[in-house]
Amino acid sequence: MNRRRTPSKPKVISQTRKKKVYDNYSSGRYIFVAVAMGLIAIVLIARLAFIQVIEPEYLSNQADKRSLRITESIAHRGNIEDRNGEELAVSVPAYAIWVDPKQVKKHFAFTRQEWKDSIVVNPKTGVERYTKKYFYESKKWPALAEVLDVNIDNIAAMIQKPNSRFAYLKRQVNDPIVKYIKQLKLPGIASQLESHRFYPTGEINANILGLTDLDAQGIEGIEKSYNKFLQGQSGERRVRKDRLGNVIDNIAVVKEKKLAGNLQLTIDQRIQAVAYSELKRAVKINNASSGSIVVIDIHNGEIYAMANYPSFNPNDRNQYQAYKLRNRAITDTFEPGSTVKPLVVASALINHKTNPDEIVDTNPGWMHVGGRRVRDGHNYGKISLAKILKKSSNVGVSKLALRLKPDQLQQTFADFGLGNDTGIGLIGESAGRLPIRHRWSDFELATMSFGYGITATTLQLAKAYSILGSGGMEYPISIIKSATPAVGRQVIPKHIALEVVGMMEGVTEVGGTARKAKVDGYRIAGKTGTSRKAVAGGYGDDYVAVFAGIAPATRPRFAIAVMINEPQGDRYYAGDVAAPVFAAVMKSSLLLSHVLPDDRDQSYTYLEAK
Amino acid sequence: MSGNRDNLLLLILADLRHYVVIVILGILILISALYNIYTTHETRELVTKKEYLSQQKDNLMIEWRNLLIEEHTLDEHSRIRSVAIHKLSMAQPTKNNSVLVEIR
């Protein structure tokens, strides 16, 4: 700038002006100001450099302390729904109310003496003031006790514990109560978010769903088997918050949030509800000790209903008793009795030891096998295979079994899934007992043909019948809905399975063992089984009443097995005890699933599409 | 320029014009810095808003779950069944009063 200006500047003017300016110019003052300014600048720059370059951590740490926060976002446990999307288990947020006794003790006195000791005199005004309130005079604590439904003496005892810093007052408290407690503004009382599991269907599904503990971990049933899937993971983020607590910046994800999966079951809650209530009624009417029922879709092995009694309401933990929780349909085995007779007939047909038109002579209604006697209720004379099943003739079925080699019969039983797990994938499943050995006495073979000496679960029995109904196709049993259709495996020749199903139709007819299993409009193929329960040293006086069946007989859709354990009274036969349950549940299943009636004798008004 | 020597303002302006590129760059830097501040502020507001909305979403989700429970407590099948039978005197249709319609 100077370079350009100087040549064109007239000297006179500039000199006169300069004179004015420099008249009182003092170089000493100039230097002083310059040095002072320079020093200040240097100090400022040095300070700046110190803050920015040499030690930047201190201040940024201080800033972070005031603004960096970690926020947690809770992942609630996944819902469990039935096949129609109806929720069977839902998690909602709940709160745990806890107390810090030390904080409370700071503000409240528990004895009069303590209260008097807390007096403080203001040195300026001389006014006396109690720093603590007397606990039992406060109206807030009784209010808290009342809203939490906890005895106030318990709360007092909890707080008075020495050196305690944490105690739950109550867990699983819902939101309105928490808001009320916050309004009380009691010192030392705080809430903590947790999750509450709620089962809208109550006792109906308790056995299969199981339940969770207070920390939302599955401890029984499906809740346990699929705990990992249902659980999810709460996420944590590091964020920057402003003065008002608003998040202004997302810094980093500390823990990835993993949303919990929702689980869809194959259960149809409508059928399940009917199954449970019918089973419960049958168990109560017959004074039985327990009962189970399983409904299986024959075409893909999906379980439509699986109910047990006794059950309990999982929403009320006071009812919790281990024996009520057991999913008896998969854990409890019993001797299936006469319900295995159709399988024996199938085995004889498979091994070409009989043909569907054979007439078996059961005269005189009993026979000796290996020195022991096998008896029928009556002498049925010469009867067809279908009649053997209709009348449940022990003699007839023993004669068929004795033509078979033991391993042939066993192989058929194994093909029907006895003695093996069903593929349902739930914890606690029992595989039953199908003894494998080479030497069998004739009597043992005969008793095995009417269902003694082997054990099965209700689910296994239902599966065996569903294999019959599907024309010999075995599908893995599933209770979790899967997107891919189940792949079946042919285990029994199709024509034999269907022939046996046809033979089982007689059971609901006049003279059959289970006329009460009849369902209006549909043809039923089924079999009763009433077996004595084994006790130490032989068979006792208690019975297991079983009915297993398939419907509609011409185009099978559902297989149902009903087991009533230890019915008391005169009517302990399966035809009286278990068959009515079967009929009621089968009727609901067929109607709700819109299965076409196949019994043409029935007077339906029929509109055909043109 | 040469006409009015002692007008400092004009001198400064003339000088600025000489370094016009630098001046423009300086102004641009200034604008950019201010805009940076503005954008940061805007971003923070949006983040806050998003946070608020997701909080709201969580609350709605919780409400939904509670409503779900209420719904399923009310539409529980055995309850509906007993209401239908006892209060409304309904019955399951028998074969005589039902009509089969084939759907194709």
Structural overview:
The complex is a heterodimer of chains A (610) and B (104). Helices cover 36% and strands 23% of the residues of chain A. Chain A is an alpha+beta fold and 610 residues long. Chain A folds into three domains: 2-54, no CATH class; 76-231, Alpha-Beta Complex (Penicillin-binding protein 2a (Domain 2)), CATH 3.90.1310; 269-592, DD-peptidase/beta-lactamase superfamily (Beta-lactamase), CATH 3.40.710. In chain A, strands 2, 3, 8, 9 and 12 form a five-stranded mixed β-sheet that branches. A five-stranded antiparallel β-sheet of chain A has the order 14-13-25-24-23. In chain A, strands 1-10-11 form a three-stranded antiparallel β-sheet. Chain B has one domain. Chain B is rod-shaped, with a radius of gyration of 39 Å. The mean pLDDT of chain B is 86. The interface between A and B is large, with 47 and 34 residues. Strand 26 (605-607) of chain A pairs parallel with strand 1 of chain B, so a sheet runs across the interface.
Q: Can I get a quick summary?
A:
Chain A is α+β, with helices and mostly antiparallel strands and 610 residues long.
Q: What is the end-to-end distance of chain B?
A: 99 Å
Largest β sheet strand count, sense and barrel closure of chain B: none
CATH class of the largest domain in chain A: Alpha Beta
Quote the average pLDDT of chain A: 86
- General form of chain A: elongated
Structural class of chain A: alpha+beta
